[in-house]
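Here is one chain, start to finish.
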Amino acid sequence: MLKATTILAGALVATVATSAAAEGELNLYSSRHYDTDERLYSDFEEATGITINRIEGKADELIARMSAEGANSPADILLTVDTSRLARAKDAGILQSTDSAVLEASIPGYLQDADNQWFGFSQRARIIFFDKAEVANPPRTYLDLADPAYKGMICIRSSSNTYNQTLLASIVTHHGADVAKDWADGVVANMARAPQGGDTDQLRGIISGECEISVANSYYFARSIRKEVKGLSAERDMIGWIFPSQDAEGAHMNLSGAGIAAHAPNRDNAVKFLEYLASEQAQQYFSAGNDEFPAVPGVGLAPSIAALGHFKPDDVNLSDVAKNIPVAQKIFNEAGWE
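Its structure:
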């Protein structure tokens, strides 16, 4: 039997490859690193009698591992975050199409791969935060972040961050590469500091006074409402937020999603797992356990997410956005976005 473990060297590949297919088991490769997902897995096991054997690691490491394992890979499911990584997995040829009436009925089409190789199961809005005492007229759209009026005011993550890559790819999708290049140039000119840290660090930058405006995913802020987050929760009231582009395309959403591995030895169990992730129980847990927006319409929100208010999400087809991720990376490089 496989054991839940972290990413290891090639010796483990030979060990698991000989026992990959097993009745009542599922081999999950996951780059989600949230302790609250333990409940998600245990509920599936209890409901189905299927044991989950989990291997965890960074998304790029898992994609490279599955590629190296090839037809001998024990992986049944790849679970990861953001459209860019899901697209990377598809391009690497390590996923397969999934025909499921349950998934088609539950997951909106714009949150699915065009070839059904991956499906989104939870969402995060990438939104604009600002110092309420210092910023009288905060940016209302993503394009506004490039306005010279905000010179020296913005904290934002590096260009290697997948959330920023997908955001820029969505700008390319909506507005074209030329507008996207001007935007990237303008944001670089408006940075208060060189990109550093994670999304929570961008929010802490407002509290410390290093910047007046930041860009971060909604769940990092919502988490500080649900529980104590060092350096953020105590001073959270000084921060306001904008769901951008409400009179246009809407707020950009990125995904946590999954697909069935190309050589899944336990394919039927893999389909059951994806269908479980689309269930109301699992969808509520994505929200309550990790402050995410459910992918399935009509599922109730956790209080920490509901506190952010109603907004219009961008419903652009994320398969189209994924095609523009290489363009986005090229633009980042040309703009000198570190």
